[in-house]
């Protein structure tokens, strides 16, 4: 869960408490609408699925989403496998209109790392 800040005092004086800081994105992490939606959709699709490692979805021009056995979150961390796609391909995979294996075979989805984990994830998303 992320804290939504509706106003920001850029001249100083408006401090964020240390309790709130752990809810904020890490420095340099951009929380686009697509990333927020991806976290929601992937959380639903991955509910109860154990993948036994860490997967990173890199959505070109938008940011990254991390998936592991503890859940789904926006982030850009080391992973066992990284899946990279443009926003259109990623949305197609999330909606079920694009098969992840077909996207990989046609070069629309790039896989770097543990191919077995990528295949396990693809079956969970299909």
TrEMBL record:
This is SCP-2 sterol transfer family protein. It comes from the Bacteria. It holds the Pfam family SCP2. GO terms for cellular component: cytosol. Residues 51-125 form the SCP2 domain. It comes from Sulfitobacter guttiformis.
């Amino acid at each position: 869960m992320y804290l939504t800040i509706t106003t920001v005092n850029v001249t100083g004086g408006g401090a964020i408490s240390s309790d709130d800081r752990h809810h904020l994105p890490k420095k340099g992490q951009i929380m686009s609408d697509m990333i927020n939606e991806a976290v929601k959709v992937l959380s639903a699709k991955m509910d109860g699925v154990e993948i036994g490692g860490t997967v990173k979805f890199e959505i070109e021009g938008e940011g990254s989403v991390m998936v592991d056995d503890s859940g789904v979150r926006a982030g850009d961390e080391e992973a066992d496998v990284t899946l990279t796609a443009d926003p259109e391909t990623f949305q197609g995979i999330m909606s079920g209109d694009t098969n992840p294996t077909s996207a990989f075979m046609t070069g629309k989805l790039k896989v770097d790392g543990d191919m077995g984990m990528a295949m396990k994830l693809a079956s969970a998303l299909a």
